[in-house]
Input
Amino acid sequence: MADLIPRRLFNLDRFFSDEGWDLDQYFPVLKVPEPAVDLYETDKDVVVEVSVPGFDLKNIDVAIENQNLYLKGQKQQEEEKKGKDYWRKEIRSESFERIIRLPVAIDEKKTAATFKNGILKITMPKIQPSQEKKIKVKVKEDN
Output
C-alpha cells in the first residue's frame, strides 16, 4: 500500500539540519494572482497604473479610504466547443483584490480614473499642506 504522506517528510536528520524542511513541495500555497501596479508621484498628483487585461471596467471597483487605495476586480469567461461526439464548456473565473497605502494625503473628490488597453490609470491630486503657523512662545521667568 502506498504511503499517503511521503516518508521523507518525517526525516528527523533533515529537520535538525541547517537546511530545514521545504514544506512548499508537500503543501503548495495557492495564491490569488495580483495585477501589476505602478505607483508614482508627480509635483501635483499621485498616480497608480494597474494592468488588468481582459477585465471589463464595470467589474472593477476602486475606493479610497484612510490613506488606502482599494482595488477589486472580477472576470468570468465562458467558452463552449462542439466536437465530433462531445460537448465541452469551460468556465474560467478570475478575481483580484489589492490594497495600496498612499504615500501622501490626496484629494478624494478630485480623483479621476481612465481605462485604456487593459491599463487602469488612477490620478489622485495631492493635498497641499497648509502653510505652517508659527507660534510665538513666551518665556516665563521664575520669581
In short: The CA atoms of residues 59 and 95 lie 10 Å apart. Strands lie at 37-41, 45-51, 60-65, 68-82, 87-101, 112-116, 119-125. The mean pLDDT is 78. The first strand starts at residue 37 and ends at 41.
